[in-house]
Amino acid sequence: MNNALQNLRPVLTQPEYDFGKLLAHVLSPSRPLQSEEFLRGREEQLTGIRKALYAAGRHVFIHEFRGVGKSSLAQTAAFTLSSAQQDPVLLGCDKSNSFGSIMRDLFEEVVSRNPAIEKTLREGAGGFNLGLLTGNGKVTHQEGRASEPNTINEAVRMVRYLCEKYSKDLVVVVDEFDQIKDKEEQEHFANFIKQLSDKHVTARFIFCGIGETIDALMSAHGSADRYFHTVSLDRLDWDARLEIITGAADALGIIIDDTTKYRIAKISDGFPHYVHLITEKLFWRVFEARNNGTVSGALFELSMTDASDAMEMKLKQPYEAATRKYTNDYETILFAVADGHELQRRSTDIFESYVRIMKSLGREPLEREKFNARMNSLKKPSYGAILSANRTGWYEFTEKVIRGYARLRAEQNHVQLEVDHPIGTRRLGWKGAEKARL
Ligand SMILES: Nc1ncnc2c1ncn2[C@@H]1O[C@H](COP(=O)(O)OP(=O)(O)OP(=O)(O)O)[C@@H](O)[C@H]1O
Ligand SMILES: [Mg+2]
Q1: Cys staple from 52: which of 83, 229, 281, 379, with CB 3.0 to 4.6 Å?
Q2: Could you tell me the CATH number of the domain that includes residue 186?
């Protein structure tokens, strides 16, 4: 054991409160990260964003499917790019938002941090009519809120004003952009970004959204792609997954063996939420065991149940809808869909996995026809529409992040799923890959 570790091990003998505080500092299953200290495996993307933004007038769009770590990359990049004095503005969209309401939220957030800005405007020192102002320079309020800017130009003027009075390095994160479905509203954002760039406004916008929203934004304005540095995020690689676990273990003075680390990394399938959640539950168990900080197989088993029980409803609900049927055929089929590393799998490959899994459990597999019928059912709303398929017979989890939950449930049921990630097997080497199967 190295000295640093020795110094930290007393954490385990401290009161629950202190342990809990430190644990929450190093593991955050449900809160996006904001600091490079904890962001693993995204150095390339962060550098890419930094380099792209040397060019004036460029903004960022981070996209891909749910749960890969979009908000964490966006917020960490935003904190890195903002001035030390002014934190970035973090805004989230929901279905009720429009372009105007997001701009109003931005204005209100900055004003709440620096009321002097509103005061300057009220006294007319802004020297222009902002739409947020009326005639004699009063901020108008609807039900106690500033009114929305009426046009793109007004919004651009407002942001220019915030850059002048609040921070020339203003960075704004617009998260969950996919929630804005209206084409016209999306177009407003695309036009706004173009105007900001054309008018040399120094603020930077970082958007996050799942898959298709990037296409929507880009197609909303012919030249929008010129103004965006786009980052398509993949799942975390093996190294990054392992670093999350090792980093937290070292900080807490917990001794964790390689096999358990690989098991957690394997279950997560590269979705960082699961790495954080399972490790958090495991380290609580270690703390409570008062066993001098050592992970054991029994504690790991318990932590999987803890993690599964604590799983967010949005992940659990479709899974339960799919498996809470009078036959218990469905769960092993979901294990088979989650087998391997590919997000989309051919029905024939899934069937192969399924037969292997059923045999390993000493159960008789369904015939192919019945299996196909089950697969079809799993696309229906009454089964949580947990699977989607294209016409050529490739299946995937509708929400990819649910793969991790299926993998956790498989592990709990002592079902071994294959590791066929090329990086995983290469990095782990033959022995590592074998270990991961343990
Ligand atoms: N690169 C990373 N290294 C370590 N942990 C990470 C990383 N990226 C994300 N996480 C962790 O994973 C969890 C999920 O990440 P995040 O919220 O950023 O994902 P997301 O893609 O925005 O998800 P959603 O689509 O649900 O909004 C966070 O709680 C965060 O702590
Ligand atoms: Mg997010």
Answers
A1: 229
A2: 3.40.50.300
